[in-house]
């Protein structure tokens, strides 16, 4: 990874006088070479992990966008291919457009299935984008199902029944996903009880990630973190009592001290 600062001490030394000295960012820089730990270190850690991953992976961000693009584009292409037959938008025969639509909705079905599994294993937030993906695909599937039958009947294409199966599957999965989002999902703004549960989960995952780091490297990380804290204290950017307390906080949890101080 190639962030602007290689260490937390370097970040603290370069910190602008107008910038807020956030302890969560300080510690994230100390652990920047361990994204598995950063992901469970609050918003600052997760944000730095995303920046580091984007800089270190080149085209990885583009590849991660492909499933989302397929989820949006595939059903639209499928409907567009089949819609021209009864309305005369183009001369594509049903023998060609129906299979194209079937393949597009097969892709959409896979995307829906993956999205359902991912969502059930994640924090199950009821996000507007996911609702749009689910019910949008359901509407497109229902429309394509009807238009596909009409186009096949008009042109006497007998293979439509097979190609309507992926349309039905994609639409059904989309409806299931939408129902799950509404029935089991929660608003992104978590309540206190759920926040506590998430913090406990993140704490377990953080400790597991730190346990995989060699002891010698952990000592260097702590030393870097403590040096950065001391530098901020010496420059008057951090009150001495808070700096002393921060040095004794469990590694990876300084972002919680930020939250406490902001209350």
What does the model show?
The chain is mainly α and 263 residues long. It has helices at residues 8-14, 23-30, 35-38, 42-57, 60-87, 94-121, 128-155, 160-184, 192-211, 215-234, 240-247, 254-262. α6 runs parallel beside α8 (160-184).
Top keywords for this entry?
263 residues, 76% helix, elongated, mainly alpha, 0% strand
Secondary structural class: mainly alpha
Q: What oligomeric state do the depicted chains represent?
A: single chain
Strand content: under 5%
By DSSP, the count of extended strands is 0
- Main pleated-sheet profile: none
**Gyration radius from CA atoms, angstroms:** 26 Å
> What string, H for helix and E for strand, traces the elements in order?
HHHHHHHHHHHH
Number of alpha- plus pi-helical segments: 12
Using the alpha-carbon principal axes, give the shape: elongated
Spans of at least 5 consecutive residues with low confidence: 56-64, 189-200
Mean of pLDDT: 80
| Helix proportion range | over 70%
Distance between the termini: 34 Å
Summary, kept brief:
The chain has 263 residues and is an all-alpha fold. The protein contains twelve helices and no strands.
SSE layout and pairing:
Elements: H1 8-14, H2 23-30, H3 35-38, H4 42-57, H5 60-87, H6 94-121, H7 128-155, H8 160-184, H9 192-211, H10 215-234, H11 240-247, H12 254-262
Helix pairs in contact: 1-2, 1-10, 2-4, 2-10, 2-12, 5-6, 5-7, 6-7, 6-8, 7-8, 10-11
């Amino acid at each position: 990874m190639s962030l602007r600062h290689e260490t937390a001490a370097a970040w603290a030394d370069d910190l602008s006088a107008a910038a807020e000295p956030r302890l969560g960012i300080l510690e994230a820089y100390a652990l920047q070479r361990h994204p598995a730990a950063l992901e469970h270190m609050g918003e600052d850690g997760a944000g730095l992990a995303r920046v580091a991953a984007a800089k270190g992976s080149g085209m990885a961000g583009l590849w991660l966008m492909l499933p989302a693009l397929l989820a949006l584009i595939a059903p639209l292409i499928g409907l567009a291919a089949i819609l021209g037959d009864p309305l005369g938008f183009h001369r594509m025969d049903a023998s060609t457009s129906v299979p194209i639509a079937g393949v597009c909705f097969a892709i959409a079905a896979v995307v829906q299935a993956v999205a359902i599994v991912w969502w059930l294993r994640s924090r199950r937030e009821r996000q507007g984008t996911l609702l749009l993906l689910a019910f949008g695909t359901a509407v497109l599937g229902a429309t394509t199902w009807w238009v596909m039958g009409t186009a096949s009947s008009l042109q006497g294409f007998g293979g439509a029944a097979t190609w309507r199966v992926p349309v039905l599957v994609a639409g059904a999965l989309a409806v299931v996903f939408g129902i799950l989002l509404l029935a089991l999902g929660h608003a992104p703004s978590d309540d206190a009880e759920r926040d506590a549960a998430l913090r406990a989960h993140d704490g377990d995952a953080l400790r597991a990630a730190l346990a995989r780091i060699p002891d010698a490297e952990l000592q260097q990380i702590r030393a870097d973190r403590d040096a950065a804290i001391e530098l901020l204290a010496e420059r008057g950017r951090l009150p001495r009592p808070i700096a002393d307390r921060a040095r004794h906080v469990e590694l990876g949890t300084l972002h919680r001290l930020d939250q406490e101080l902001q209350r």
